[in-house]
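Hi there,

I know you've been waiting on this one. I reran it after we fixed the sequence typo, so this is the corrected version. Both the input and the resulting structure follow.
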Amino acid sequence: MFLATTSISIPAHAQATFDPFFFLRPFLSQPKEKSRPAPRRWKGEQAPKKRRSSSPSGERTKRVKKALPVTGVVYSTAQEAKAGRQKDPSQFILVLGDAMGGALASGLADAYLGEQDRIAIIGRISGQGGFLPEPENWKARLAEDVKAADPNVIILAMGAHDLKAIDDTGFKVSPFSDRWLELYSRRVDKILAAARGQVGRVVVVGLAPVSNDLHKRDYVRLNDVLRTRAVKAGLPFVSVWDGFVDEAGNYFATGPAVDGQQRLLRKEDGVGFTRAGQRKLAFFVQKEVDRLLPSLAGPITTGQAQGEALILAGGPEKTGAEPNMDEAISELRAPLHRGIAPMSLKGRADHFTWPPPQGLEALPARLPFEQ
C-alpha cells in the first residue's frame, strides 16, 4: 500500500512573509492599528473644544479670591476726610498723641467704620511726643492742629516717653521727685487748659501697661498724675489699664478681644498693639466719646439732662419754670440721712394704692382666654 503525499507549492514572494505558526504568537505582538490622521479643516476653522471630564479628578476648581478685611481710615485733616465724598462728615474726632495715640486712632476708625459717613477720625501723631516740650511742643502746635481738624472732640493719648529728667533753671530734676512732679503737673495743666480752650470736649487717656516691669511700675505712677490733673481740670479720664492685664495685674499679650475671642493684642516688643489690640484700646475710649459727641438733634444742656435724670429718680415733675437743681438734689439726699423713704410717684411700681388712681383701670375679674 502506498501513501500518496500532496505538496502545496507556495509562491516565493509569499514565503518571506508567511508564518505557519502565527496562531501561537501572543495577541499583543500583533501590529497596532495605525492612528487615524487628523481631519482636514478649512482655513480659519477652529478646532472643536475638548469635553471636560465628568470625574471629580478632572473637574477644574474655581479660585475664589478672599475679600480683604475692611479697615477704618485715619485722616490727617478734615479737608482730606471730606475729599471724594458725596456728603461731608458732620462730626470729627481729633486724636493727639504718641505711638499709643496712633494705635488708638486706628482703633477708633475701625470702631466707627459703620458710621464713617457721619464721623471721621483725624490723627495728629508724633511718635515720641508727650506733655513735655521736647521733642514735640504740643502746646505750641495745638492751635494749628485744631484748625486742620475742626474737631468736635479732642482725645489726648500721650505720656509714655515723659519718663526723663526735666531741666529746672540749669539743673536736671529726676523723674518722680517732688520738684519733677510739680513741674510735670504744671506742664500737663497748661496743655489741658489749651485744649479745653480750643474745644470744650476733651478726653484724657491713661497709659497702657507694657511688658517691661520697670516701665510698667512707672506708668502706674504716671497714670495717677494724669488722672489727678484731668479731674482738677474738669475733664474725663479714661483708664485702659485693666484691658491688658490679668486678674493678678500681670501684663499679657494674648487675651480677650472685643468680640469675646482670645486674640493677640500686643506686638512682640511688648509695647505696640495689634489690630485687635487697637480695637480693644478704642473700646474703652469710645464710651466716653459717644457721651461727649453732640447729638444731631442738638446738644443737651446740663440742666436739661439733670432734670430728666431727677424725674426718673422720683424727683420733681417738669413745670414751665426751670427746676432748682440744688433743692432737688438735696431733696433726694435727705431720705438717706433721715431714713425715711421718699414719696412714690403715681403709676410707678412702688405706688401701692387701692383703688388705682384715675387713668389706671383695674384688670377684669376674668381675662378673655379664661372665659
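Quick highlight: Residues 64-69, 296-320, 359-371 have pLDDT under 50 and may be disordered.

Best,
R. S.
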